[in-house]
Amino acid sequence: MAVAFVTQEELCTRLRCGSDLLILDVRRRVDYDSSSLKIRGAVRLPPDEVKSESHQLPRDKEIIVYSHWEKEQTGQQVVQELRAQGFERAYPLIGGFQQWLSAGLEMEPK
């Protein structure tokens, strides 16, 4: 099943406009632990906890999911799992955390 992506530009616009969305940081533990930063407003959800913790996620918000980098499949896999559980407005972020960081976009300490 093909999954639509959200571009970095689209997410920046949504953040500036104050869109009501949830940003999920699903980086693998080693990648998450090696950085002191996250995308502004992101909530940490380890990928291996998605099935057991998804009941706590809001169903009325768009969910943007990011993993460490674009080629990593974690973000897409999490989105597919969320969609299987009925979260139809879940989308992976193109480029992941590394591209966001390299572009100098909005970050905050974890």
Q: Look at the structure and give the CATH class.
A: Alpha Beta
- For the terminal residues, how far apart are their CA atoms? 33 Å
Number of DSSP strand runs: 6
Task: Assign a percent range to the helix content.
Answer: 25-40%
For the largest beta-sheet, the strand count, sense and barrel status come to:
4 strands, parallel
Average pLDDT metric? 93
What percent of residues are in strands? Answer: 15-25%
Under CATH, the homologous superfamily reads Rhodanese-like domain
Q: Supply the number of helical segments.
A: 5
Q: In a few lines, what is going on in this structure?
A:
34% of the residues lie in helices and 19% in strands. The chain has helices spanning 8-17, 29-33, 50-53, 74-84, 96-102, and strands spanning 21-25, 37-39, 43-44, 62-66, 90-92, 107-109. A four-stranded parallel β-sheet has the order 3-1-4-5, covered by helices on one side. A two-stranded antiparallel ribbon has the order 2-6.
Task: Report what the structure shows.
The chain is α/β, with parallel strands linked by helices. It has one domain: Oxidized Rhodanese, domain 1 (3-Layer(aba) Sandwich), CATH 3.40.250. It contains 5 helices and 6 strands, in the order αβαββαβαβαβ. The strands form 2 sheets. A 4-stranded parallel sheet has the order 3-1-4-5, with helices on one face. The longest helix has 11 residues. The chain is globular and about 35 Å long.
What does the secondary structure layout of this molecule look like, with pairings?
Elements: H1 8-17, E1 21-25, H2 29-33, E2 37-39, E3 43-44, H3 50-53, E4 62-66, H4 74-84, E5 90-92, H5 96-102, E6 107-109
Parallel strand pairs: 1-3, 1-4, 4-5
Antiparallel strand pairs: 2-6
